[in-house]
Amino acid sequence: MLKRLRDWARAIRRDVHALFLAARDHRTPLYARALALAIAAYALSPIDLIPDFIPVLGLLDEAILLPLAIRLAIRLIPQALMAEHRAAALAASRRPSSRAGAGFVILIWLAGFALLLRWLWPEAAG
Questions:
Q1: CA dihedral of 123, 107, 53, 64, whole degrees rounded to 10
Q2: For residue 83, what pLDDT is reported?
Q3: Phi and psi, residue 73, nearest 5°
Q4: What pLDDT is stored for residue 51 in this prediction?
Q5: CA 49 to each of CA 7, 39, 58: distance values in angstroms, whole numbers, following the listed order
Q6: How far apart are CA 41 and CA 102, in angstroms?
Q7: Terminus-to-terminus CA distance in the chain, angstroms?
Q8: pTM above 0.85, yes or no
C-alpha cells in the first residue's frame, strides 16, 4: 500500500510539472493554459491556501482538491499534447518552483484578512 501511495504522489508531481509545461505551450487552448498555470503555481507554491496546521482541512487541499483540479486541467488539454508534456516532465531531473504561485496565494490571504478586518470593524473602513 505504501508503494501505491508513493507512486500516486510521483504521478501527481509529474502531472503538475506537465501542466506547468502545457501552460507555457502556445498549442494548449487558452482556457486550459490559464487553469493549468493556476494549478501548477498553487501546487508548486510553498504557501498553502489552507494551512496544514489546521486539523483535517489543512490536508484537504493537497489530498482531495488538488488532484481533482489536476484531473480537470488534464481533461482540457489535448491527449497527445499532454502525453508529450508528461514525457518531458518525467525526463526532467528537477521540479520547477513558482514564485508567482506563492505571490498569488499571499494576495489571497491578504485579501481575506482585509475582508475579515472590514467585517469585524466596519466603522474603521468608512
A1: 120
A2: 95
A3: -65, -40
A4: 75
A5: 25, 12, 9
A6: 7
A7: 57
A8: no
Of the two residues 64 and 126, the one the predictor is more confident about is 64
Can you give the three-state secondary structure of the chain, one letter per residue? CHHHHHHHHHHHHHHHHHHHHHHCCCCCCHHHHHHHHHHHHHHHCCCCCCCCCCCCHHHHHHHHHHHHHHHHHHHHCCHHHHHHHHHHHHHCCCCCCCHHHHHHHHHHHHHHHHHHHHHHCHHHHC
Express as a percent the part of the chain with pLDDT over 70: 94
Tell me the one-letter amino acid at 120. L
